[in-house]
Amino acid sequence: MKYNPNEIEAKWQKYWAEHKTFAAKNDSDKPKHYVLDMFPYPSGAGLHVGHPLGYIASDVYSRYKRHQGFNVLHPMGYDSFGMRISAYAERLLQGLNDIDWSESIKESQRNWIGKSVGAMVDFRLQNSESSI
């Protein structure tokens, strides 16, 4: 049987979404544990391997704590201010305003870190430095 990554990944991404696999439970009797990463920052129009890299260690730790019986909350956050000069130049080239550009980067990070990488991140709760 030949490995088909598109088919296998789509299968598991659908399962995770339907079963809310990575969502923390508010009504849990388990002890609570909170894991927060450094926010991935915009570094141009796209993403690179460094964006999910920061989530690997915290993802492993989150899964470890969940297996120990903790109710783990691992939310997603976004750095909306990183590398402002580069970010501004990219927005000008793409014709996007601040809000559109910021949202497009967030969506790319959600798709890559949350879906393709399959990190144990609860995307129901998200924080952005631009909203602080």
UniProtKB/TrEMBL annotation:
It is an enzyme of class 6 (ligase). Its EC number is 6.1.1.4. GO terms for cellular component: cytosol. It comes from the Eukaryota. GO terms for biological process: leucyl-tRNA aminoacylation. One of its GO terms (molecular function) is ATP binding. Signal peptide: none annotated. Keywords: Aminoacyl-tRNA synthetase, ATP-binding, Ligase, Nucleotide-binding, Protein biosynthesis. Residues 11-94 form the Aminoacyl-tRNA synthetase class Ia domain. Belongs to the class-I aminoacyl-tRNA synthetase family. This is leucine--tRNA ligase. The lineage of its organism: Eukaryota, Metazoa, Chordata, Craniata, Vertebrata.
